[in-house]
Amino acid sequence: MVNWVVVGVGDIATKRVIPAIQAEARSRLAGVVTRDPAKAAVYGVPGWATLEQGLAEADAVYVATPVALHAPQTMDALRAGRHVLCEKPMALTCAQALEMQRTAEENGRTLGIAYYRRCYPKVQRALELIRQGAIGRPVFAELTCHDWFNDEDGRRGWLLDPRMAGGGPLLDIASHRIDLLNFWFGAPRRVHAQRSNLVHHTAVEDNATVMVEYDSGVRGIVDVRWHSRVARDECRIRGAEGEIDMSPLNGPRLVWPGGEEYLPPHANLHYPCIQNFVSALLEGAPLLATGASSLLTDWVTEQALRSDTKARDLPAHAGLS
Q1: Same domain, 31 and 136
Q2: How many CA atoms lie within 13 A of 321 on its CB side?
Q3: Domain limits at 16?
Q4: Where does a domain end: 91, 116, 141?
Q5: Cα–Cα 20 to 30 A to 150, which of 203, 281, 283, 300?
Q6: pTM (whole model) above 0.70
Q7: Residue 104 lies in a domain
Q8: Per residue in 76-90, pLDDT tens?
Q9: Cα(first)–Cα(last) distance of the chain, in Å?
Q10: pLDDT of 155-211, one tens digit each?
């Protein structure tokens, strides 16, 4: 049995993480760390104001707080001898993420990151098809996620604060899709990106476009937007001899040259992620999203931030019109 303490009781914890822990037969919700004791009372478990208080009851800690808190809270838990499953992205910087991974290794604890889309049956199936040569040599992939977000309901305002979130849709929703590119194609080599604010005048970007090139030569493009009234969730992998289409990514449909398959994700998208983490702890099963693999995603997003910072509009004195 794995005794879980959840740190932070916001949207993702209440809608998915805590229900997933409660549904996982080898797991027990031991308590939550929250500034609001009423949030613990709802689940009939203890609530603590600080992580230090909750660690005494934990085998594993789920860190579900804003990104700026991921590194310090994760490392505190690891140093106390607890395993950690942390929300994505790992941290505000790649250096912080690397320190998290080193802390896990130094303390002999398991560190996982909640890139739950790796658990999707059709994402696993796509990897199998790529390895089988179903589309020939893979050469290009494109993923888009367009939606509308400007915290109109006042529930997730921290996402618009770069000190807490590190960025806008680049870190929030592009990170999931960049992680899938890494899952399918391995080590990223080069990154180029552009960000801007076209509709929302906030402290973080409202759109980002990232191009990642892999050691294999595959290029992936991820385009994410918080200013679209038309929701899009597209995912295609193109090879020299065909294409895998998984649009919408969060749906069940997968089309490839050999046919069409329907592989729905779990009703609670976080459940397979929790299940995989528990299996890793109790049975030594391979962890799908490790600290080491997730470091690559933080590296890509950091390179994207640097690439965009270096990019400048063509100066007027360049003599071009």
Answers
A1: no
A2: 0
A3: 2-116
A4: 116
A5: 300
A6: yes
A7: yes
A8: 999 999 999 999 999
A9: 68
A10: 788 999 999 999 999 999 999 999 999 999 999 999 999 999 999 999 999 999 999
